[in-house]
């Protein structure tokens, strides 16, 4: 027994002080704001309300974005200008090309399958007797960390030599079906696909909840009219429900795509990026924080950023269209 | 409603579809719960059983123990010591959550109800910040916090040399910064739905914006605050990347996720520790999730893009 409560007290104390001090400052701010001048324009009030978050966002996000972009055209220490060398390096190194290919695999499979499974499940359990429980089952992985989920699945993929008892579920199923157990996480590109399964497992619940809400918002009279026209369940889904909820499906697809592009925890926990499973976010971390290659790490971050931008633009256009339609 | 008369063929087909549909739903539900169940069952099996037989054989051989938890939580020999990391996770998640929720509400209020030129452009700017991936901010922010900043020879931010519990501060700051764009966006949606007449009546009675925010707006958006707090808490609790970079790996500040990822890397075969450890990290999110599921779903529905 080595747990020492005394060593933990300072943490909780600092937690309490931090929160109390923050709330005191905000409380004071709310008093000060009403003491200030009141004019037609709320300059003073805006300054009081916006300064805390404004400073944090400018210093913590805006400045870093500019700085990272600048670093991406500099050398490893961030001092000398190297032009586009870091980007050229990316496109000429076989390892990094592999990283880009893996990221592509992730973005191709994870959003599509997670959205499809979530949608199918939402339709299947809609208005069934056990809907609430059934939904919780799919939704539950959303609460688990990517690290926790990775450990859960690493255990599912565990390998024991043929002839001994398997302890991993996947190999046991293979053995039951008469096959040979395998070391699933060693062979590319299968290992990357097996890592993608973990993200699908996490994100399907999100896809299900959002799409289920959209399905419930489809007006009853439209469904009724289709049914009177003699449409069966299958046709009803493809010709009525899906077109009606398409904007939501698109939002879910894109949201998961953005998440997928930034995936890091799963790869790091399950393989550490070994066996040809690395992705951009993982490589960025390695270059910048393990090898001290600030230039290359920053260039990878910029690539990630550039890949995310079009997705978000589509997202914004989509949101605006649905708002106008309302 | 009376069902339209059906031919017998149609009836058979419908029965088959609904049976196939139920079967499909059950298969998915099983695939989504069995891996977690396997982890839970394994975490209470003795080490030698975990290593030599599948967890599904527990029914034939129900030997259960809490030893794994005892070891992984409290033993000092480097086998986990997760109790300390558990406290760290709390010490990181709670303040970050409070900071994000309060600052988001404050900022959203200003962006909706204060009158000053450029207000809408500011909101568009905050909205746009949501798309910045964490990765874009990590290197400069870490340098800023660890090395300080000088502008034109004047030190505007000193280098932080923090010891002990004070090392949580940069982690709080980083999480707050990364949580704000989504938080402000979500709160903006809620604050903008408040009736204009309400705010204007209070203004006419002579209330200042500080008082309106504290006395009228905060109570009215309380459910939204809970939703955001929940999302933010889970997000910070489950985060690995920010913690790795701003907290490092020491037992003084690193959260559970960092320790678990490390154990998965260095002690990948010690399933008795990994399974128990993973469950220790999951128990708080699962409890929060099960008790407040409705708020969680609402938060997700309100805005689903996280930067």
Computed CA radius of gyration of chain B, to the nearest angstrom: 25 Å
CATH topology of the largest domain in chain A: MetI-like fold
Number of strands of chain B: 2
Helical/strand content category of chain B: mainly alpha
Write the H/E string of chain A, N to C.
HHHHHHHHHHHHH
CATH class designation of the largest domain in chain A: Mainly Alpha
Keyword list:
heterodimer; A: 326 residues; mainly alpha; MetI-like fold; 2 domains; B: 307 residues; two-stranded antiparallel sheet; flat
Task: Provide structural commentary.
Chain A: Belongs to the binding-protein-dependent transport system permease family. The complex is a heterodimer of chains A (326) and B (307). In chain A, helix 1 (5-35) crosses helix 2, helix 4 (94-125) packs antiparallel against helix 5 and helix 4 packs parallel to helix 8. Chain A has helices spanning 5-35, 43-71, 85-92, 94-125, 131-139, 146-156, 169-176, 190-217, 220-228, 233-261, 265-270, 280-290, 294-325. With 326 residues, chain A is an all-alpha fold. Chain B has 307 residues and is an all-alpha fold. Chain B has two domains: 8-67; 73-302, Orthogonal Bundle (MetI-like fold), CATH 1.10.3720. Helix content of chain B is 71%, strand content 2%. Chain B is built from 14 helices and two strands. In chain B, strands 1-2 form a two-stranded antiparallel sheet. In chain B, helix 5 (119-129) crosses helix 7 (168-191). The longest helix of chain B is centred in the first third of the chain and has 36 residues, at 8-43. The relative contact order of chain B is 0.13. The mean pLDDT of chain B is 84. At the A-B interface, helix 1, helix 2, helix 4, helix 5 and helix 6 of A face helix 1, helix 2, helix 4, helix 5 and helix 6 of B.
């Amino acid at each position: 027994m080595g747990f020492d409560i005394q060593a933990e007290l300072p943490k909780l104390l600092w937690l309490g002080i931090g929160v109390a001090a923050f709330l005191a400052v905000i409380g004071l701010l709310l008093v000060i704001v009403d003491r200030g001048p009141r004019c037609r324009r709320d300059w003073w009030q805006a300054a009081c309300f916006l300064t805390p978050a404004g400073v944090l966002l400018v210093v913590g996000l805006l400045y870093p974005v500019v700085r990272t972009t600048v670093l991406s055209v500099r050398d490893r220490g961030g001092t000398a200008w190297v032009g586009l060398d870091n980007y050229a390096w990316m496109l000429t190194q076989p390892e990094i090309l592999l990283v880009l290919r893996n990221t592509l695999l992730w973005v191709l499979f994870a959003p599509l399958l997670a959205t499809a499974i979530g949608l199918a499940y939402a339709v299947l359990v809609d208005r069934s007797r056990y809907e609430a429980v059934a939904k919780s089952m799919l939704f539950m992985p959303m609460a688990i960390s990517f690290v926790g989920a990775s450990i859960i699945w690493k255990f599912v993929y565990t390998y024991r030599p043929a002839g001994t008892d398997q302890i991993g579920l996947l190999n046991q199923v293979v053995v039951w079906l008469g096959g040979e157990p395998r070391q699933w996480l060693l062979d590319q590109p299968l290992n990357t696909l097996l890592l993608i399964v973990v993200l699908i497992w996490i994100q399907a619940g999100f896809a299900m909840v959002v799409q289920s809400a959209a399905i419930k918002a489809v007006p009853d009279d439209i469904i009724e009219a289709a049914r009177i026209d003699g449409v069966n369940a299958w046709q009803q889904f493809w010709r009525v429900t899906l077109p009606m909820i398409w904007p939501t499906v698109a939002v879910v697809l894109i949201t998961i795509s953005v998440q997928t592009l930034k995936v890091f925890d799963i790869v790091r926990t399950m393989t550490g990026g070994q066996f040809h499973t690395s992705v951009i976010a993982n490589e960025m971390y390695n270059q910048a924080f393990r090898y001290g290659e600030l230039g290359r790490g920053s260039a990878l971050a910029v690539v990630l950023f550039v890949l995310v931008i079009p997705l978000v633009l589509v997202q914004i256009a989509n949101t605006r269209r649905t708002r106008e339609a309302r | 409603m009376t069902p339209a008369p059906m031919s017998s063929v149609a009836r058979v087909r419908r029965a088959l579809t609904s049976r196939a549909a139920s079967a499909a739903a059950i298969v998915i539900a099983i695939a989504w719960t069995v891996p977690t169940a396997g982890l839970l069952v394994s975490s209470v099996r003795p080490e030698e059983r975990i290593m030599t037989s599948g967890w599904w054989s527990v029914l034939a051989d129900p030997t259960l123990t809490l030893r794994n938890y005892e070891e992984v939580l409290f033993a000092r020999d480097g086998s986990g010591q997760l109790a300390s990391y558990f406290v760290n996770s709390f010490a990181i998640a709670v303040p970050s959550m409070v900071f994000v929720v309060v600052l988001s509400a404050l900022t959203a209020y200003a962006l909706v109800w204060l009158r000053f030129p450029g207000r809408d452009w500011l909101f568009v700017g905050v909205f746009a910040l949501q798309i910045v991936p964490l990765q874009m901010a990590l290197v400069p922010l870490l340098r800023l916090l660890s090395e300080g900043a000088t502008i034109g020879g004047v030190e505007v931010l000193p280098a932080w040399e923090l010891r002990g519990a004070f090392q949580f501060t940069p982690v709080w700051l980083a999480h707050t910064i990364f949580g704000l764009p989504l938080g402000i966006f979500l709160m903006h949606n809620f604050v903008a739905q408040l009736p204009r007449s309400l705010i204007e009546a209070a203004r006419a009675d002579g209330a200042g914006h500080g008082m309106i925010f504290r006395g009228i707006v905060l109570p009215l958006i309380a459910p939204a605050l809970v939703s955001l707090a929940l999302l933010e808490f889970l997000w910070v609790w489950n985060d690995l990347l920010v913690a790795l970079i701003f907290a490092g790996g020491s037992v003084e500040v690193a959260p559970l996720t960092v320790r678990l990822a490390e154990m998965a890397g260095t002690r990948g075969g010690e399933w008795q520790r990994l399974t128990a450890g993973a469950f220790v990290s999951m128990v708080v999110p699962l409890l929060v999730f099960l008790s407040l599921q409705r708020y969680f779903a609402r938060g997700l529905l309100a805005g689903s893009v996280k930067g």
